[in-house]
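DM from R.C. (forwarded with permission)

"hey, sorry to bug you on a friday — could you get me a structure for this? deadline for the figure draft is monday and I only need the backbone to look sensible"
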Amino acid sequence: MKKRKLGKTGMEISPLVFGGNVFGWTVDQAASFKLLDAFVAAGFNSVDTADVYSKWMPGHTGGESEMILGEWMKRSGNRNKVIVATKVGMDMGDGKKGLSKSHILRSAEDSLRRLQTDCIDLYQSHIDDPDTPMEETLGAYAELIKQGKVRAIGASNHKAERLAAALETSKKCGLPAYQTLQPNFSLIELNRFVNRKDSASSIIFLWPADFSPANTVRKAMRRGRLGHATSQSISTNEASGFSARSTKSRRNTTPRPPGFLSLGCWRAPALRRPL
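My reply, with the result:
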């Protein structure tokens, strides 16, 4: 399968990334293993998860998805075949949230332990944190990269102006820069993104205006040559994941979590249309 360059990270990934928030939520560990086996056997090589998956389920505390992914990599021996992306910043309870240095460093260690690996390939800010100086957030990532615990960093659910400010801060302060952006955009539920003017929404891409050359999000991405991955791009609010034997989604009444993921990724300078 032809791989695509992921921004300036030096990593190459397949066009479709497996959204791992279903692990431990709508699919148990055994089913998750089968899905991952089939995914890698088909030539795909990247899985996206987050520390908060699947805290929304009764009895869960977060980290369930990472733990299942870690167990699968240990069992299959496929760690070197998979680009692992995870995220930090969402509310984990007991005040554990945001992008402060202490929270990022602590959360990274927790994620590494659950994933049973010594390095996260792509560590993403799951949500913007306006209460923490960008220098502090990026400085924390700098420490993790220097220690060899993170290869590259990315942003998720960031507005254009905040993404541009973060890239400028990296440049001015000599700190690591975000190499990817992960906004929410669904081809299946395209009507949710057409001409929407809800400023409080996490949706930052609207069709068709935000894919025009004049759009501020796209401008920031092109200036920084960011890789791009849309969350929920081929799933719906009621999708429960893929079957190893079928790509049909099943109805699911479980409340939708933040960032239900089925991702399409491509290099930002080549961006022409949503995937």
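R.C.: lifesaver. The first strand starts at residue 4 and ends at 5.
me: no worries. The chain has one domain: 4-270.
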